[in-house]
Write a structure and sequence with these properties.
The complex is a heterodimer. By secondary structure, chain A is an all-alpha fold. Helices cover about 85% and strands about 0% of the residues of chain A. The model of chain B has no long low-confidence stretch (mean pLDDT about 90). Classes of the chains: A mainly alpha, B mainly alpha. The interface of A and B includes residues 16, 17 and 28 of A.
């Protein structure tokens, strides 16, 4: 398991790329849902 | 007038498009979830470690699909801008506005993941080569489009100004795409093209295509929800 997260020594780069990307997509969805609720209110 | 074109104009009205957009958004959101789980599984568990780069190459599964989406969304945004400019349909301008933030987001993701890939493989986070620079210009075009829309109070004038910027900016898309052929760039050439077999293992290719499908569906879902917000807010 820890070997998987180490990514052959490139864990910082791989998880930095995936983590930030999916976090940003999540933020976009969150903001959009907020806008949707406010638009319908 | 044929039945086909009647239906086309029927959906050009925001009110009739509203429920359809909701159904498309739900279906696309479900598919985005399925494709991304499949893509991540293939990318992390089935695709082998690259002989030259090691595991850092796995950034490709978001980097390349995000870069594709960044360019494709811009072309679609410019298409709807052109339609809105020529036909004065309200829905097409709304479509352009709904796409811009997601396009900007994928452009940023392409740059961010590229930077994290560049550091261990090229030894630098950033280089002013043609591919990276033209992709950065794409990000500024998206920002310019959104800023211009926000800066003009009159909706129709904002749409026309934004449409002009979007249409003129399309010139940047072939520059991004062909930059690796036209100039000597640090960025590598295309791994996938329409004319020859992909230069990578089948599982790597499959992971990339699945993630591209996931981003595609995500973009459709988000743009459809956002266009529904635009419709509600315009009333």
């Amino acid at each position: 398991m820890s070997e998987f997260f180490a990514m052959g020594g490139y864990g910082f780069y791989v998880w930095g790329a995936y983590g930030v990307s999916f976090a940003l997509l999540g933020i976009e969805v969150f903001l959009l849902m907020k806008r949707k609720r406010e638009a319908q209110a | 007038m044929t039945a086909q074109s009647i239906k086309w104009f029927w959906y050009a009205s925001p009110q009739t498009f509203f429920p359809l957009a909701g159904r498309i958004a739900r279906a696309a959101a479900v598919l985005a979830g399925i494709f991304s789980l499949a893509g991540l599984y293939v990318g992390f568990f089935l695709a082998p470690t690259d002989a030259q780069q090691g595991d850092v190459y796995r950034i490709i599964f978001i980097h390349v699909p995000a870069a594709w989406m960044s360019m494709f969304i811009y072309v679609v945004m410019a298409f709807w801008s052109a339609v809105g400019f020529a036909m004065q349909t309200r829905l097409s301008a709304m479509m352009s506005r709904a796409l811009a933030p997601t396009g900007a987001l994928f452009t940023f993701i392409a740059l961010w993941t590229g930077s994290l890939w560049g550091k261990p493989t090229w030894g630098t986070w950033w280089v002013w080569d043609a591919r990276l620079t033209s992709e950065l210009i794409l990000l500024f075009l998206y920002f310019g489009f959104m800023a211009l829309q926000a800066a003009i109070d009159d909706r129709r004038r904002a749409d026309r100004a934004g449409a002009l910027l979007a249409i003129v900016g399309v010139v940047n898309i072939p520059i991004i795409y062909f930059s690796v052929q036209w100039w000597n760039t640090l960025h590598q050439g295309a791994s996938v093209s329409f004319t020859r077999a992909p230069s990578m293992a089948a599982t790597m290719f499959a992971g990339m295509i699945l993630m591209a499908a996931a981003f595609w569906m995500y973009s459709i879902a988000v743009a459809m929800v956002r266009v529904r917000c635009e419709i509600v807010e315009s009333q």
